[in-house]
């Protein structure tokens, strides 16, 4: 009877194929790459990749108490840590949309925008806009602390084939997981936390070209690190770099690039501009226009709120998955 360990090669190759297909699906995304829908897909892919990694580890017949377990625990701890940073950034946005929603609600009971009301709402909007600046500054510090380690994981030189084959191929699988998860986490941070430039993605694209070219010369796929896996990762990096460059050019500055967030900022500014017209011209304004701007503001913050709640729920589910996976592998080692 064949040992389940005889299936190691097919299981490892299957994992690389799973990563490749997931990256291709993200690259073929039809939504705005900085939209809440895309962020949700990125996080869902990250969770799926990690779950598949846990399943694979159970199939590889790894030695009890081996270094592989420490390396797996280190990687899952890294995922946990960065995802908590993401959740912290989202919490800041939740405070922001709560304040903005209160501003919109405060105008519901008024059918005529008086000079006094207009002054009051303008002040509230300016306070909210200052909160945005403070939030982005906090997130910038958070991002600067996280971005370099993520870049290093993506751009880490591929080691020798014998090194990647250690622990029945687990070392190579973990390398792949670190690279992919670093890229996906960087995309999430640029969307919901802060993005100062697109250069981090463009630089990594250069790193990908180097590895891919090197491997092609030697006709060596290094356990899946050939054209399919690395090319898929490189294409996604390049596509996201282009999207980020476009968003920064459109906004005229860096910051939180999440599409729904920037739309909400624009909607709030439009309400402020209309109310400032009331202050300047008093009775010479179109009340219907203000009401339309206020309705748009409500819709924008409604979309932002729903999206952030979805992402928060996904993060909580991911935290549960990480805890269960760590427990499962520890239990397997203890049982063995």
Topology of helices and strands:
Blueprint: H1 8-27, H2 36-59, H3 67-106, H4 115-155, H5 161-164, H6 170-192, H7 199-218, H8 227-251, H9 259-281, H10 287-335
In DSSP terms (H or I, runs of 4 or more residues), the helix count works out at: 10
Order of helices and strands: HHHHHHHHHH
Give the end-to-end Cα distance, rounded to a whole number of Å: 21 Å
Q: Per the principal axes of the C-alpha atoms, what is the gross shape?
A: elongated
pLDDT below 50 for ≥5 consecutive residues: which ranges? Answer: 203-226
Estimate the mean pLDDT confidence: 82
What is the tally of beta strands? 0
Largest sheet: none
How many whole angstroms does the radius of gyration measure? 24 Å
Percent of residues in helices = over 70%
Portion in beta strands: under 5%
Count of the separate structural domains: 1
Structural class comes to mainly alpha
Description of the structure:
The chain has 336 residues and is an all-alpha fold. The protein has one domain (10-22, 31-217, 257-335). It is 80% helix and 0% strand. It is built from ten helices and no strands. It has helices spanning 8-27, 36-59, 67-106, 115-155, 161-164, 170-192, 199-218, 227-251, 259-281, 287-335. α6 (170-192) runs parallel beside α8 (227-251) and α9 (259-281) packs antiparallel against α10. It is elongated and about 80 Å long. The chain starts with 7 loop residues before the first helix and ends with a helix. The model is unreliable at 203-226 (pLDDT under 50). Its main location: membrane. Keywords: Membrane, Transmembrane, Transmembrane helix.
